[in-house]
Design a protein that fits this description.
single chain; 554 residues; alpha/beta; seven-stranded parallel beta sheet; six-stranded antiparallel beta sheet; globular
Length: 554
């Protein structure tokens, strides 16, 4: 490392304290099926990711989060794991992953992998054995229960993907729990053997050198040991941020099927494992519509649980506004002064935010500027930096079982999972020479990487500028967050480190506005407010429609 904190190998700035690198990290999510196909079978793979690492490095991100690539029957496209310790042949081999990991590290890119341990595939050897009898060595590794006297399931729990959360198994003569597909049975975390096995899986990948995990459905690990019914949620308090409004899942408060207090002890055990390795991190996905922020706060409290968590408040369809952003950000800061939220606007489970909030290019640029100014790690989902909109797919093209279940009122998650577009003049946008597993929308092609690279005004270049700004300022990477306000429809706040501060302002409306700055002298950050050079500011500042300002105390 040189005197300016830059890597001698690449010249890239390295985030602050190594042990806390994650606090200011920008994490780029790669959905491997749709990133780059290297062998022309229509499915993206690990070698494909490796071939595109320079593009990821050029974004300036600190880490990649790679969605599941484990062996799987692909009923839920990798989120139904049949072997945690091997790579599915569709994606390559374990050696391919090792090469990808090594290349990422050579390029100063950390690697987080998606760990799905709340449930497995029904083809996992653990479940095959567990269902074979009530007395085998893994008999209690999954959540099994007898039928009620009338033969119905043991309680009223519902699956996120529709229908009851229980399926009858004739071999064992009991129901098993599945919070998602019936082919995704839930592990029984009340079993010490299951908890140990989950930690052993994590240990395997940490030994290989991964830098941490995104923990899928982290609040689903434990269920109520007494299997009590979930209470009803009144119509006025229902929230469809986790499940579509047509799904009866929204009609229950899932206090017994997830969000159990027993989870905290396991998260502490998981953190103890991570802390045995240097500079590793964890990002938990909290899937809960009613109290996601509160759970995220609880799960990241202090230094003994998860490093950070994200919930769905800013991934929902709720109208984006300064008031909404201020409300969510302030609420987390209030209930989790020592916790860390991970922030994102898009991922592989939700409608892309360009479509969800009907955003034009200027509005998307404002939101990435706002995102990188927030306290805590942030995630960028592949393609959002190009401005890709949600794809509209015909029913015959839909692969997502969730979408098939609730079509046409809900079309599923495939619309955000279509392949990356690398070049408008190549077949299938340069993703593959074969017909891809999901079609490449024609409207995505003009926004491809190649075309965006050649357009200085493209959103891709705006993302790069925003990420560079985050890396440049310690206040954005590790500073405190203060004075979060919504002034009319402008979001304003301060990021502070010691005696220096950054004032951040974002006008989320179609008309100019005046924001009142804190007392003192301020120097605008070059390029942050539509200006080509830095400006001295004091008192107040005019923000154009969908304009931004970042200014440093002077």
């Amino acid at each position: 490392m040189d005197s300016e904190g830059r890597s001698r190998r690449t010249g890239k700035f390295v985030n602050g304290s190594e042990s806390h690198w994650w606090r200011g990290a920008v994490v780029y999510q790669v959905y491997p099926r749709s990133f780059q196909d290297s062998n022309d079978d229509g499915i993206g793979d690990l070698k494909g990711i490796r071939s595109r690492l320079q593009y990821i490095a050029d974004l300036g991100v600190d880490a990649v989060w790679i969605s599941p690539f484990f062996r799987s029957p692909m009923k839920d496209f990798g989120y139904d794991v049949a072997d945690y310790l091997d790579v599915d042949p569709r994606f390559g081999t374990l050696d391919d992953f090792k090469e990808l990991l090594a290349t990422c590290h050579e390029m100063d890119i950390r690697v987080l992998i998606d760990l799905v341990i709340s449930h497995t595939s029904d083809r996992h050897e653990w479940f095959v054995e567990s269902r074979s009898s009530r007395t085998n060595r893994r008999a209690d590794w999954y959540v099994w229960a007898d039928a009620k006297p009338d033969g119905t399931p043991p309680n009223n729990w519902l699956s996120v993907f529709g229908g009851p959360a229980w399926t009858w198994d004739s071999m064992r003569g009991q129901y098993y729990l599945h919070n998602f597909l019936r082919s995704q049975p839930d592990l029984n975390f009340h079993s010490p053997e299951v908890r140990k096995q989950a930690l052993d899986v994590a240990d395997f990948w940490l030994d290989l050198g991964v830098d941490g995990f995104r923990l899928d459905t982290v609040n689903f690990y434990f269920c109520d040991s007494e299997l009590r019914d979930n209470p009803v949620v009144s119509k006025e308090h229902r929230n469809s941020s986790i499940a579509p409004s047509v799904n009866p899942y929204n009609m229950q408060s899932h206090v017994h099927s997830k969000n159990r207090p027993e989870n905290l002890q396991f998260l502490e055990e998981f953190r103890q494992l991570l802390d045995r390795y240097e500079n590793r991190t964890s990002i938990g996905e909290v899937g809960d519509a009613q109290k996601g922020l509160a759970i995220s706060a609880e799960y990241t409290k202090g230094e003994s649980r998860l490093h950070s968590c994200y919930s769905f408040e800013l991934l929902s369809g709720d109208t984006i506004s300064a008031r909404r952003l201020a409300e969510v950000i302030s609420r987390f800061e209030e209930i989790a002064p020592d916790g860390w939220a991970c922030w994102a606007f898009s991922n592989h489970d939700v409608v892309r935010h360009a479509t969800r909030w009907q955003l034009d290019r200027k509005q998307q640029e404002l939101l990435i500027m706002a995102l990188v100014c927030l306290r805590g790690p942030v995630c960028v989902f592949q393609g959002e930096e190009l401005g890709l909109a949600q794809a509209n797919l015909d029913f015959d093209a839909i692969r997502d079982p969730y979408g098939k279940e609730f079509w046409p009122e809900y079309t599923g998650r495939d619309g955000c999972r279509t392949p990356m577009v690398w070049s408008a003049d190549e077949r299938h946008g340069g993703f593959s020479n074969a017909d891809p597993w999901l079609p490449v929308p024609a409207e995505h092609l003009p926004l491809s990487v190649k075309e965006s690279e050649h357009d200085a005004s493209s959103l891709l270049h705006a993302y790069r500028r925003a990420i560079r700004m985050r890396r440049r300022f310690t206040e954005l990477r590790s500073g405190t967050l203060e004075r979060v306000r919504a002034e009319e429809n402008a979001l304003t706040f301060l990021r502070r480190t010691g005696s220096t501060a950054l004032y951040c302002a974002f006008n989320l409306q179609d008309t100019p506005t005046i924001v009142t700055m804190p007392s003192g002298n301020w120097l605008s950050v070059e390029g942050s407010g539509g200006n080509d050079g830095a400006r001295h500011l004091q008192g107040s500042c005019r923000l154009e429609e969908w304009g931004t300002l970042v200014a440093r105390s002077n």
